[in-house]
Amino acid sequence: MVDDSPVRYQSDEEDSGRWSAFPFRAGDIVISTRSKSGTTWMQMICALLVFRSPELPVPLIELSPWLDWLGAPQDEVFARLAAQQHRRVIKTHTPLDGLPLDPRATFILVGRHPLDMAVSLYHQGNNLDRARISQLTGRPSSGDHATPRPPLHEWLVGWIDHDASPREEMDSLPGVLWHLSDAWSRRLEPNIVLVHYDDLCADLDGSMRNIATRLGIIVPDEAWPELVDAASFEQMRARAEALAPDAGHVMKDRTRFFRRGSSGAGREVLSAAELAHYEARTKAMVPDDLWTWLHRAPPWSAGPDE
Fold this sequence. Notes:
With 306 residues, the chain is of the alpha/beta class.
């Protein structure tokens, strides 16, 4: 007998097991991405489409909570979502095979070049208060947060070669590629929407209109310019205090969350030989058509890092 129950993904800070008890409603929007791949950007886009206004009723982090984060009690997160009368937008970093894929919900995934995601992840790591995270998630502080991190180049080369279980280290290269491979295999299902980060960068207006169509949301023509502007990198960075996903005040500086927001950073760090090694390693891990889709040439426009 085949076990088709969701895979459970657990780390020191996350537990996808929370989803097993979550009561879905018709119209729910679940944003499933890897860290630093456009999560907050897509949350903002969906919130703007739901409310059809650049002014949200509450801060984005309250409007669209991270359901599986252990830093917030499950009952508190569920209660907040249960009280919402509008169409709900919910954040997760869990791959689709770890979620109950309720047909009443739409699941949106954002794919980003893994090297760009990794560089953003590195810089985000420098901006986190690890002791505060340990306190919120109820685990003892190891003191590792006091150990100096290696330089970016050294860290990135190690990240490329690190072999890890996707279930245990979801932000590892195998974890990132598994998340995307699973989404790629489901991309033709009617309630699965797969978006490339670089498409958002190159044509935010067109991408937002496509997402609205998939969600069945009709936006008045006159409202589009304001909504697209509110989702731009410049506007989101200007509103970092309200938009950065800083539950529990774990960031040292919210304004640093929206750091660069463009593609190509990972390729700037590595030598030609190192890039060739990365290419060979990743091509052995995903289907050819996914690899080609994911590793397209980057546009010059910018978008929020997460």
